[in-house]
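Sequence, please.
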């Protein structure tokens, strides 16, 4: 029997559950270069284990095995941008064609008021699902990743 569970600032996720959700996302999300620390940060922010605007984690499981996960973080930007961002969404590969992901996504969206955004890598197979549910490409994201200097000193001598 398929069971849906929601974790938020009021219904906390245990460390064991958080670890299982994190491992599931690492294994099943259709994204390359996924980082454990970023997933953990989104999970902790969703349930306010760290200072944040909160959000929620919604899971679907079958016989206690995770089959789909969505992580939604509230942004606090409702006045000038999307109030919510879907940080992570994944469906177990064995359940990807049976509508589990669609149902989980629809249930998560029904809990939200206001605009919702998400970032998808190019050629993401979930893009069609999001577009079917009303998401539209709104803009191109340009990203500058600041790299920390590894040299011992960045100063030069002044003569």
């Amino acid at each position: 029997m398929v069971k849906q569970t929601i974790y938020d600032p009021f219904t906390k996720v245990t460390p064991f559950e958080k670890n299982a959700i994190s491992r599931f996302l690492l294994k099943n999300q259709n994204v390359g270069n996924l980082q454990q620390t970023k997933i953990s940060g989104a999970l902790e922010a969703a349930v306010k284990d760290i200072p944040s605007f909160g959000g929620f984690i919604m899971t679907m499981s079958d016989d206690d095995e995770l089959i789909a996960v969505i992580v939604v973080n509230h942004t606090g930007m409702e006045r000038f941008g999307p109030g919510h961002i879907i940080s992570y969404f994944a469906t177990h590969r064995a359940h990807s064609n049976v509508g589990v992901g669609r149902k989980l996504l629809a249930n998560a969206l029904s809990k939200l008021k206001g605009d919702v955004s998400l970032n998808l890598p190019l050629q993401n197979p979930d893009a069609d699902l999001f577009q079917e549910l009303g998401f539209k490409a709104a803009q191109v994201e340009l990203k500058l990743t600041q790299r920390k200097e590894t040299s011992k000193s960045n100063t030069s001598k002044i003569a």
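The helical segments are 15-28, 36-46, 100-110, 127-132.
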